Amino acid sequence: MNCAKNAPPPAKLTLNLELQSRNTFGLEVVAERAYEITDSDQVPALMHEITQNQWKWHVLGSGSNVILPPVLSGATLLMNIAGQKLTQTEPDNAYLEVGAGVNWHELVKWTLDNDLPGLENLALIPGTVGAAPIQNIGAYGVEIGQYIDHVRAYDTNTNQFVSITNAECEFAYRDSIFKKNPNRFVVTQVIFKLPKVWQARVHYADLAAIASSNSTANPTPQVIFETVCTVRSKKLPDPKVIGNAGSFFQNPLVSANQYEALLAKFPKLVSYPDVGNQRKLAAGWLIDQCGLKGQRLGEVGVYEQQALVIVNHGKGTAADILDLAKIIQDKVQQQFGVTLEIEPNIL
Fold this sequence. Notes:
It is a single chain. This protein is α+β, with helices and mostly antiparallel strands. The model has no long low-confidence stretch (mean pLDDT about 95). The N and C termini lie far apart (about 45 Å). It folds into three domains: about 70 residues, Uridine Diphospho-n-acetylenolpyruvylglucosamine Reductase, domain 2, CATH 3.30.43.10; about 110 residues, Uridine Diphospho-n-acetylenolpyruvylglucosamine Reductase, domain 3, CATH 3.30.465.10; about 100 residues, Uridine Diphospho-n-acetylenolpyruvylglucosamine Reductase, domain 1, CATH 3.90.78.10.
């Protein structure tokens, strides 16, 4: 009996597709050739066509961590692979396979609804599951790389699907092998490894209060999830209301010596311990100290409630955003001698 999977229809093509609703900055963008990817098996034939025509290509999830130009030339792969399922359980771990097009926050809610905690600190981070390992998304002391077993992707160097182990992903702060090789892999599924013995992670200041509260001396995953949602909602603007890509700059890492020198000069310096002798500085605090919170440059500006966020007040463009980013970087460098790195991908 032939049990082979039926081939999916080719990826749907739309010419000159308007993408303003598919990037959280709300930038006016047109994709010359937009292909909707709903099945990983659509990728090989499409990549062959792209190679044959020598088109530029990009993968776009929900556009929550990108700065897009007015025209995306070549081929844009709209990643819409859906579905999540529990594939394996062991005494210590559960394994979860998730399509790259699944909404990240919806996945976090689903895991809690199905008694699979661990991802609750990463609640309300915008974007798709396929984008999560690329940036190694993180918040409140947790990075997604801690919970990924392996990633399935199409390797355009070898023209075949590969399973990339956690170690091979080369996860680091807001970094991975995928980010280092932006035109090599098309991520199609992410397989998570969730420990069955759950531990609350509430050492960050915004969450520590719930651990010390009498009513939540032993906070549950759901309590942490709800707290994270509340804190993020207060700090970060809703992209549906005002265009933004969340945190715009990475928190810079500095050596112990540089940290001590800065602390002597700026006693209220906000920082967190990191690996080795490094310290992670709060980029938002640095920007705020430069007097930039709430400042505008034409149609874009620094969010008035969180200096780490750049917002689009209306008709801003990628060039406007990058001009403002350069002003911020220069002022922080001048005042603190610290270089800020842009977090969103610039296409």
